[in-house]
């Protein structure tokens, strides 16, 4: 199979390589429902040693700079409680944590979650967190630019490998809310 974007040697429909995915991501792919068929979720093998954006796009394709999205975990605090959420923005933008995220979560304060919290709560590796397979109940805040991109490269739940999905699929993930102004 050829990946819909990038120059990857190894591309496979995600349902055919569940053993390459961390448990929560594999479970989400196994239970996939919606307008986008599961076989349109593509897993591509990548070298975890060249995960840095500059080296990654040089190796796998310059167009990936405009077609990749970052998924980050944030913590919104109000009173004594904390709400964890994931935010998905195109990789050439940044998450508006103090504006759009704080407002959407109804938090007094919002910040990026610590690495230990992000990995421990998501069951995914740092640098590979993906919106596919997030914990139940987590809000997934998605920038409209991600949804409007034909194909989007995101993490696979671990540092080795990535997932490629149609952008519109992210709006249909559990807990997804499209938030104007999320990526700035």
From TrEMBL:
<dbReference type="Pfam" id="PF04073">
    <property type="entry name" value="tRNA_edit"/>
</dbReference>
<protein>
    <submittedName>
        <fullName>YbaK/EbsC family protein</fullName>
    </submittedName>
</protein>
<feature type="domain" description="YbaK/aminoacyl-tRNA synthetase-associated">
    <location>
        <begin position="48"/>
        <end position="169"/>
    </location>
</feature>
<dbReference type="InterPro" id="IPR007214">
    <property type="entry name" value="YbaK/aa-tRNA-synth-assoc-dom"/>
</dbReference>
<dbReference type="InterPro" id="IPR036754">
    <property type="entry name" value="YbaK/aa-tRNA-synt-asso_dom_sf"/>
</dbReference>
């Amino acid at each position: 199979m050829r990946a819909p974007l990038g120059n990857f040697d190894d591309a496979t429909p995600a349902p055919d390589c569940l053993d390459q995915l961390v448990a929560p991501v594999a479970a989400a792919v196994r239970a996939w429902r919606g307008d986008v068929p599961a076989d349109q979720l593509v897993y591509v093998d990548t070298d975890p040693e060249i995960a840095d954006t500059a080296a990654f796009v040089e190796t796998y394709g310059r167009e990936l700079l405009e077609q990749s999205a970052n998924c980050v975990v944030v913590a919104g605090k109000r009173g004594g409680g904390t709400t964890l959420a994931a935010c998905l923005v195109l990789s050439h933008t940044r998450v508006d944590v103090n504006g759009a995220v704080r407002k959407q979560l109804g938090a007094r304060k919002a910040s990026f979650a610590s690495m230990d919290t992000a990995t421990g709560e998501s069951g995914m590796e740092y640098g590979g967190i993906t919106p596919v397979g997030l914990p139940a109940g987590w809000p997934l805040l998605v920038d409209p630019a991600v949804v409007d991109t034909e194909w989007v490269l995101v993490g696979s739940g671990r540092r080795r490998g990535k997932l490629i999905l149609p952008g519109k699929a992210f709006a249909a993930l559990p807990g997804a809310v499209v938030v104007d102004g999320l990526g700035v």
